[in-house]
Amino acid sequence: MDFYQVLEKRRTIRDFSDKEVTDEVLEKVLSAAFKAPTNDHLRQFEFIVVRGRENITRLISPVTENTKNIQQVGLEAATDIMDKDEYAMFADALPKQQRMLMQSNCLVLPFFRQKDYPLCHPADQSSLNYFASAWAAVENILLAATAEGLACAFRIPIENEPEHVKHIVNAPDGYEFTCFLAIGYAAENAHICKQKDIEVKDRIHKNIW
């Protein structure tokens, strides 16, 4: 698979089979994170790999309650503010938030060093450089996983989820939790959401918008 085929095939998959990702393949995929650009060149990323239903359940316990609260009002409210493709993705994703993290049986917790400023109270845009670098690393992981024939789904933590995770795994001060990242093999009947068709030339502006 060449690079552009990997880009084309990279999709969020929320339905996993029971085939297990080996430690060898996982290490290869996670190594891609350290090839991403970082603002300080130090690549201060750390990964916690969680396997086993009991361990994953303990980590994601706030996800269940938070998702339930959103489901009660979210889907109904979304019908009026989202276009049909966006709504279809939202409607597929929301009920699977807990299940997808459990089903892969390989939950990766990426951490990054956030220096100088609290992440949610940045002094200016440049103080988010560490956060931007962390997501560049996550994207490398997603692409590497695709190249290895794997599927991925991630959940950006909300409300009490980051602090819960950091407490459970005993993360040191100064490190932030990027996302819940499920890595596994797609189920045979895995749902793949329709992507928006984009005319690239219409999105490229020369000199001015």
From TrEMBL:
Pfam families: Nitroreductase. It comes from the Bacteria. Keywords: Flavoprotein, FMN, Ligase, Oxidoreductase. GO terms for molecular function: ligase activity; oxidoreductase activity. InterPro entries: Nitroreductase (IPR029479), Nitroreductase-like (IPR000415), Nitroreductase/BluB (IPR050627). Gene3D superfamilies: NADH Oxidase. Residues 8-185 form the Nitroreductase domain. PANTHER family: IODOTYROSINE DEIODINASE 1, NADPH NITROREDUCTASE. This is F420-0--gamma-glutamyl ligase. It comes from Bacteroides thetaiotaomicron.
